[in-house]
Amino acid sequence: MGIKIGILGYGNLGRGVECAIKQNDDMELYGVFTRRDPGSVSILTKEAGVYSKDDLLKHKDNMDVLIICGGSATDLPKMTPEYAKDFNVIDSFDTHARIPEHFANVDKAAKEGGKVAMISVGWDPGMFSLNRAYANAILPEGKDYTFWGKGVSQGHSDAIRRIEGVEDARQYTIPVDKALTAVRNGENPELGTRDKHTRECFVVAKEGADKERIRQEIVTMPNYFDEYDVTVHFISKEELERDHKGIPHGGFVIRSGVSGWNKENRHIIEYSLKLDSNPEFTSSVLIAYARAAYRMNREGMSGCKTVFDVAPAYLCRESPEYMRAHML
Amino acid sequence: MGIKIGILGYGNLGRGVECAIKQNDDMELYGVFTRRDPGSVSILTKEAGVYSKDDLLKHKDNMDVLIICGGSATDLPKMTPEYAKDFNVIDSFDTHARIPEHFANVDKAAKEGGKVAMISVGWDPGMFSLNRAYANAILPEGKDYTFWGKGVSQGHSDAIRRIEGVEDARQYTIPVDKALTAVRNGENPELGTRDKHTRECFVVAKEGADKERIRQEIVTMPNYFDEYDVTVHFISKEELERDHKGIPHGGFVIRSGVSGWNKENRHIIEYSLKLDSNPEFTSSVLIAYARAAYRMNREGMSGCKTVFDVAPAYLCRESPEYMRAHML
Lengths: 328, 328
What we know:
2 copies of one chain form a homodimer. The radius of gyration of chain A is 22 Å and the shape is globular. Chain A is of the alpha/beta class. In chain A, the strands form 3 sheets. Chain A has a 7-stranded parallel β-sheet with strand order 3-2-1-4-5-6-14, sandwiched between helices. The longest helix of chain A is centred in the C-terminal third of the chain and has 21 residues, at about 280-300. In chain A, about 35% of the residues lie in helices and about 25% in strands. Chains A and B meet through helix 1, helix 3, helix 4, strand 13 and helix 10 of A and helix 1, helix 3, helix 4, strand 13 and helix 10 of B. Strand 13 (about 265-275) of chain A pairs antiparallel with strand 13 (about 265-275) of chain B, so a sheet runs across the interface.
């Protein structure tokens, strides 16, 4: 019997989790829980059910782990503590500044219920955080750099869509090659916002809209665009559909540090991701940590955990013996 | 008071550990233990002692972790099980094929003594293994690639030095750019030995030696060179000293995998190292795992562990609260 997974919320992330379960033969999807009318939601897995979110507790004993696929702004701060009492849960909470508060709320609930709750799982926070931690532990004297992209920023795309006269838009965040190269060469550059990333926007304007005004509103938008070099392309709805449908992303975590009695030797540790689908990759990470949550809870652990608290062996399907013989 | 470290064996690796301790303010070097006459060994740390290896047990209660800096061929298979009874130990055992046997021997001893023993710590095995494990857990359907270099291979340099007429030599292993690019592009190439790495040799010939014969002996040497494209440069002793004194190394671990209901999306996870000093970087990893061994043993754990068994938080000086607030 596989580890039985429940998915709460069936958007891009929930669908990604469903696909990831199919790739892991020690897992099975028990069901999808939705705020919508369950009859209106059609899922890919024939063997699994679709249920109302309100009925979650009725299915409590049928699931080993519940993956909460909600938004960080309002859903997760409420949902994860609520369900951590009754389920081993995983979320991808990504509001960095509010992680300590979220951790405290979830930890309390998970300990009450004797469950394991893993928060902030994904790639940033997630795999990028892990790589920052490992690299800092190994090279205590050094400098961290994180670059994002090339990838679609939903937040920036949405910001453009809110401009009057814009029908649709897609914004790509692009790391600046020159900066990346300097970091890799161990030059330890001081990099401002403008030095690290550029922003490229593909905009579908409504008929008759003033494109020059739209361009000006984009490039001067505070916080989102004004501190960056920005390129704006106006394209047709058809071009947007044809060339910009995907949700790619990725990035680079680099630590440049020194060793030696007189710090005479330099080392560069680099971790990078190039992802065709941001939500599907995030989902794949969620599923690996679902396996860990299940195993850790069976060993008697409870409380809130992050990627820092999980020994890698818990994530892997392979046995410890196999891993030592073949992966070490 | 810091974590008190003992170093057994004072070659390149032992000296690297000594330097790494200096960079970590929660650690201190208690002493170096040597097979040589302690009076003949001069170390960099003024506050620490130099003792005979034979007196190790007399110092048992003065150290928290013993780092065993010996060779994998004959030293570590004997030493690590011997000392794991009395000390928390770390080694960098790197004979991949013999890891299961080494693990079993060390595990028995460490459990008897109630100590934590970490084996095969470093970068390969070590950080490369970790990255293979994480990437496989996240992308179960995919292909792994490991490239080494550009870096000095001690084994290959030694093999050249054994050829008649060779005074000294340095061999660099170099990854083939074209192969790396194909992997990064998600082409999933099938790569033979010759496709992945080239070998470049810098040789100092003895006076009057037949260079063409030496070159032939190198390029046709079974296992070491015959399956590779090899370049041989004859240089002077002075040039070798001037240009090839360092021990750089590094490499790339890449997993190319797919996600999606129909495996329609591709993801590339890449981890790479560019190291000025192979032994010093390895030592820096050893020291991070020494911190983990100390903490895990204090929590009551014992037995043999590998990098797969260690939650990242154990490696970091920072508190869990700090890590969640600033590194996640």
